[in-house]
TrEMBL record:
Functional description taken from the UniProt entry: Component of the acetyl coenzyme A carboxylase (ACC) complex. First, biotin carboxylase catalyzes the carboxylation of biotin on its carrier protein (BCCP) and then the CO(2) group is transferred by the carboxyltransferase to acetyl-CoA to form malonyl-CoA.
Organism annotation: Kurthia sibirica
GO terms, biological process: fatty acid biosynthetic process; malonyl-CoA biosynthetic process
Keywords: ATP-binding, Cytoplasm, Fatty acid biosynthesis, Fatty acid metabolism, Ligase, Lipid biosynthesis, Lipid metabolism, Nucleotide-binding, Transferase
Subcellular location field: Cytoplasm
InterPro entries tied to this protein: Acetyl_CoA_COase_a_su, ClpP/crotonase-like_dom_sf, COA_CT_C
Classification of source organism: Bacteria, Bacillati, Bacillota, Bacilli, Bacillales
Pathway: Lipid metabolism; malonyl-CoA biosynthesis; malonyl-CoA from acetyl-CoA: step 1/1
PROSITE patterns referenced in this protein's UniProt entry, alphabetically: COA_CT_CTER
Record's GO cellular component terms: acetyl-CoA carboxylase complex
Name of protein: Acetyl-coenzyme A carboxylase carboxyl transferase subunit alpha
Length: 317
């Protein structure tokens, strides 16, 4: 059954009326062609109106849609000859953060990304896309391998945050993320990060220190979830919608603040509406980014990344 978001209910009700008239046309042999045509026109205009005026909380809901394309979905659509690598050579393998090598237009690349599930069983297996420290150490192992063989690194960000459990803390969660930030800053190959769903806190930042950072139109990137912020600020998680507006966590907000480089458009209604078309949008952004970064020298890549992060934020007296 399709997952319906609250703000989509008017569309669902209108579609139900259209389907009912179509059914009557067949069963009762009554011509409702004109009525159906008018309702379909109304449906199209209502769809554009709703999705062109999304509130921050609406975008959060779309970013969390259970059928939203995942890292593996994009890998399957965009790259060829993907080979997944496992393990951090220290503790074990983390299925919440995957990575490997692949081909893009004949160029070898390293692809890394958070991986959540689309059903309960897979979500449990993937720990709901929340990596343990071994996930970040695996990612860094693959980045260092990419640097050795001069392969660009492409990261897909989609996590509520790094796993905050006792086991993760015991194994050095904060150290693993901090090390990634330091090491990624100095990588001598092009690094591209794309937020495809939720970009939550240090769990997202652990694979986001990049030359270019992109966000899908309905993705979010924040230091904490709206529910978490509402709990801290107002002691009431139910005020998440208000927090989402105050936090400025949407792609247009972050583009305006110069935190991301560009926004990747989504198909009407969200990336889950047409995975193949959305993958084409993402692939176009990756190709454009590589065309700009590939000609740069190792020193220029590191300097560009340094300058980019130094320029984020404003100071006023």
């Amino acid at each position: 059954m399709e997952h319906i978001l609250p703000f989509e209910k008017p569309l669902i009700e209108l579609q139900a009326k259209i389907d009912e008239l179509k059914k009557l046309t067949i069963e009762a042999n009554i011509d409702f062609t004109e009525e159906i045509f008018k309702l379909e026109e109304k449906f199209q205009s209502l769809q554009v109106e709703i999705y062109s005026n999304l509130e921050p909380w609406n975008r959060v809901q779309i970013a969390r849609h259970p059928q939203r394309p995942t890292t593996l979905d994009y890998i399957g659509e965009i790259f060829s000859d993907f080979i997944e690598f496992h393990g951090d050579r220290n503790y074990g393998d983390d299925e919440a953060l995957i990575g490997g090598i692949a081909q893009l237009d004949g160029q070898a690349v390293t692809v890394i990304g958070h991986q959540r599930g689309k059903a309960t069983k897979e979500n449990i297996r993937r720990n709901f896309g929340m990596p343990h420290p071994e996930g970040y150490r695996k990612a860094m192992r693959l980045m260092k391998q990419a640097e050795k063989f001069q392969r660009p690194v492409i990261c897909f960000v989609d996590t509520k945050g790094a796993y905050p459990g006792k086991a993760a803390e015991e194994r050095g969660q904060s150290e693993a993320i901090a090390r990634n930030l330091v090491e990624m800053a100095g990588l001598t190959v092009p690094v591209i990060s794309i937020v495809i769903g939720e970009g939550g806190s240090g769990g997202a930042l652990g694979i986001s220190v990049a030359n270019h950072i992109y966000m899908l139109e309905n993705s979010t990137f924040s230091v904490i979830s709206p529910e978490g912020a509402a709990s801290i600020l107002w002691k009431d998680a139910s005020l998440a919608q208000q927090a989402a507006e105050a936090m400025r966590i949407t792609a247009p907000n972050l583009k305006e603040m110069n935190i991301i480089d560009d926004i990747i458009p989504e198909v009407l209604g969200g990336a889950h509406r047409d995975q193949q078309v959305e993958a084409e949008f993402v692939a176009a952004a990756i190709r454009k980014s590589l065309a700009e970064l590939n000609p740069l020298s190792q020193e220029q890549l590191v300097q560009q990344r340094y300058d980019k992060f130094r320029a984020i934020g404003t100071f006023s007296e």
